[in-house]
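Re: beginner question about structure tokens

> Can someone show what the tokenized structure looks like for a real chain? I only ever see the sequence side.

Sure, here's an example I had lying around. Input first:
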Amino acid sequence: MQRALAGLFCLLMVGCATPEFRAAKSDCAPDAYARYPVVNVNTIVTRYHPIQVPSGQTHCTTTRVGNTAHTTCIPLMRTDFFPYPQAAVVDTNEAARDSAMNACAAQLCLQRYGNTECKP
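And the corresponding structure tokens:
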């Protein structure tokens, strides 16, 4: 869960970053990769598969034809997420490397633009 939150945070940081911040981050990349090289490890991770399951509620409609009524009920469905294990290759240094690149980029931005976001 923590790794997923870290990944989401990094995506948000990159998605909202200015082009200048991304340039500063790319300037920091060689040093970060030297300090935290890619270390791929085979591991088992938990993935989630969405499935539709009955919610326990039904939606009924009644049609009348003359003296008779015909009621049809269908179950209402909800999405549930089924966990399952999956083999995956994980870079164990990715979080530390991204953190180092973001910190370095913030320092470069502070030197170049006077703020940590590289906003001109």
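Each token stands for a local structural state, so reading them left to right follows the chain. The chain has three helices and two strands.
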